[in-house]
Amino acid sequence: MKPLFSEREVRAVAIFLPLAGLVILGLLLARPRTTQQDADLLEREFEERVDSARLRPFDPNRADYDELRSLGLSKYEAVSLLKYRASGKIFRIPEDVALCYGFSDSLYRRLAPYIRIGRKYALAPRSYSRERIVPQPIAPEPFLVDTVSAAYLQAIGALSRRQAQVFIRWRDASGIRDMEELRACYVISDSVADALEPYVLFAERRPSPFEEPVELNSADSAALRSVVGIGEKTVTAIMRYRERLGGFVRVEQLAEVPGVTERNYERILKQIRCDSFQIRKIDINFAAPNELGRHPYMAPRTLRKLLKARQLKGGWSTLEELEKDDILTREEAARLAPYLQFGVRKTELKDDSTSFGGEVPPGYFQ
């Protein structure tokens, strides 16, 4: 029977296979590998581009190279979008931008809130409606939220006509005094609020000289809400912190409340006062551990030392003793001083009162 391959063909295959293997191995070795360091570098470059970008509304059918670069696109991404357009394709809906070669999902999600398809190319419904198609937006300028019109909010591409009208009705009905109240309007999404924040200006509402400053320790939620600079969320934070603290001794303690920004703090200080006689004190010798631990000035490590020493010693009569026993530092003692009292047991009081002729000397409980 005649063999399938001649001896010459077998020799040729035997020589070709090793050579082919060497070529493939060389290609694999020559191919650059993406290390974790390279990936981190690319990620840092992307974040730097995003941070330096000034995102604003744009029309992908009209934007030029410089505008695309200013939006944070890399050279490769900007050229890819221009090539897509040069090939005769048109962006009819925002999702078409994601079809450009090299555009990642994260890049599209970042650009999506700012994509505006001009009336010339947008897919129009059968029954034409002006508010369905957004005209070329104008560049936003700083504006006063108390006087801005619905037409301006629509013109800069922030809101549709109907959303802008709802926003104006909301503003006229309840007033908008800060970003917290602006975000509370249900037609303002987080992305729109973030885009508008650099341009929004709020009118300063100065309190009347005849108005009494709000007393922090006795004020209810309505009284706190009347202070310019304190929003709904901040009211809740202040009342919770006041409960944990036992009351404010100084108005400066308001800066410790989560949510009180530095800018609002300066505005609030002029409208509040503090009555330190209304604070609630803690008996350090008899208070339960959870009552002591709830106080914001009592660190967990300090609480453990205090409870252990109190079990052995029984209690203290002055702050100096707590410092001497290394329970409190001088700074901790100074902060806690207005909130602590040092009680004594009734049996001790009875024994001591006999030595004073049945009378307790002034300042014995201080």
Structural write-up:
The protein is mainly α and 366 residues long. It has four domains: 63 residues, DNA polymerase, domain 1; 64 residues; 65 residues, DNA polymerase, domain 1; 74 residues, no CATH class. The strands form three sheets. Strands 1-2 form a two-stranded parallel sheet. Strands 3-4 form a two-stranded parallel sheet. The radius of gyration is 36 Å and the shape is flat. The protein starts with 6 loop residues before the first helix and ends in an 11-residue tail after the last helix. The C terminus is likely disordered.
- pLDDT averaged residue by residue: 80
Structural class: mainly alpha
The CA-CA distance between the termini, in Å, is: 120 Å
Helix-strand sequence: HHHHHEHHHHEEHHHEEHHHHEH
The proportion of strand residues reads under 5%
Give the low-pLDDT segments. 130-134, 352-366
Order the strands across the largest sheet as they lie in space: 1-2
Apparent shape: flat
Over all CA atoms, what is the radius of gyration?
A: 36 Å
Q: With helices defined by DSSP (H or I, 4 residues minimum), what is the helix count?
A: 17
Helix content: 40-55%
Count of DSSP strands: 6
* Total of domains: 4
Please summarize the sheet with the most strands: 2 strands, parallel
